[in-house]
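explain this chain.
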Amino acid sequence: MAKWGHYHGQIRQQAAKQGTHLPLPNPNTSPFNQTTKSSLPSKLNHNSISLSSMGTPSSLCTSQALMSRPSRPAIFCTSGSVSFTGFSLKTRAFFRKKHTLRFVKASVAVEQQAQEAKLALVRIGTRGSPLALAQAHETQDKLMASHAELAEDGAIQIVIIKTTGDKILSQPLADIGGKGLFTKEIDEALINGDIDIAVHSMKDVPTYLPEMTILPCNLPREDVRDAFISMSATSLADLPAGSIVGTASLRRKSQILHRFPSLSVEENFRGNVQTRLRKLNEGVVKATLLALAGLKRLNMMENVTSILPIDEMLPAVAQGAIGIACRDNDDKMANYLASLNHEETRLAVACERAFLETLDGSCRTPIAGYARRDENGDCIFKGLVASPDGTRVLKTSRKGPYAFDDMIAMGKDAGKELLSQAGPGFFDR
């Protein structure tokens, strides 16, 4: 809040030189308190943020007028600056009539900010959760380390985009339905040219990609296993009968109930990692399962009670993998991403997604799949489908060369086998 006062003081001094007097800031209603602070990525150093775009009275007017919802993604962040674009101004002025400032200047400021945003060599689109931002910053760090021109200040910007899955938190994912719940709006920003690359958790990416986009890059995969977290038990087997386990994943739910039918599952246990841990601490549920990869990327491993073996909890397709997309006609971005791609991860993810595509899986279907390279260099694939209530679980496995065409064929073949075994109505239980 002291920083907001500092910026407002500078703006007041500049306005005074022009014969304009601005009202003193109200800490309870200042735009920095209401909008900026709550929107900042947790990984940014708040003490080093320079709101350079707010250095004039007109741009203060832009910030305080906020105005109406942004029609496009609202926040562009770099390591040291934050600017706001995409807002449309209301017609009535914010300042009192005696003031000489007008929104013509504010409109100019918005255009100037948009021009500044375009100066970035790479604009990274991402969701705004702490985990999504950690993944975006990991991408940023790797780009900066691989390309000298991207290590310059302001060369890379991070654009936070709110997706459908972020907006609707009152319903289980399976009830919302549809595909691309956490990617659609980011893909649209990519196609529209608002961002240059899009960073996704691969398990959120539908098996089809939108037209005009490609996904040529996967970063090295993190640990694919699930973590068991509880305040009162050491494992799922240690939970008393009737205990409630919180998870929004039908994959986890079906595998839990298959092995421990005496337990109950709270399906609408949604929110980011921090939210779910808070609910657990408040006693909403007795335990929860979270992806170990996310906890590692957030440096929150101290919360883990135990780690579930893959044989007991097969992971989601592409769990632990980060995917980066760009436009199909953007050779410059494709070249940047080629330098970051981890081919072993890309092939494993492709195998798993071929399995998922064959099953036409979505958030409504409990499906798990995992491909890995064994000690001999071959691909080992394991796949699973289950009824939502866990009463039936079907498994299969494949082994073959660790090569793209062979792994795609393995994934498809495994999917066809389980689809045949499941029969009609399998996923309706």
